[in-house]
Amino acid sequence: MSALKVSMFQLMESSRIGLTKLSGKSAINGNKKSINTLILEAIDQYLELSLELQIPPPFLGPWKAFTIRMPDSKKRAILNVCGHLQIKNGLPISMSAALNSAIYLYLKKHSVKV
Predict the structure, then answer these.
(1) I need a labelling partner for 36 at 20 to 30 A (CA). Which of 4, 69, 72, 83 fits?
(2) pTM for this one?
């Protein structure tokens, strides 16, 4: 795996809170996962979806800057998804929107209310 580089993204506050809850649950269960690890798992899950399911849901609420450590390969994969969605919809999709979509679907899969 390539070296992890720090990237700055805008995360929805509700997503950050949901990730904090899920991280806390993992610590209680004895399998502690950091928020960064959960985000990387969310990205992996999101990239496995078909393009039809990768459309970002509408987001409402405050956004905050958040640093995430990820390999360049994941960053390129997110950029590719954004490019495919832009071609399909004709509207630009930011990397932050795609990342928030990945986190939203990940939290939904793990039954964390956002």
Answers:
(1) 83
(2) 0.85
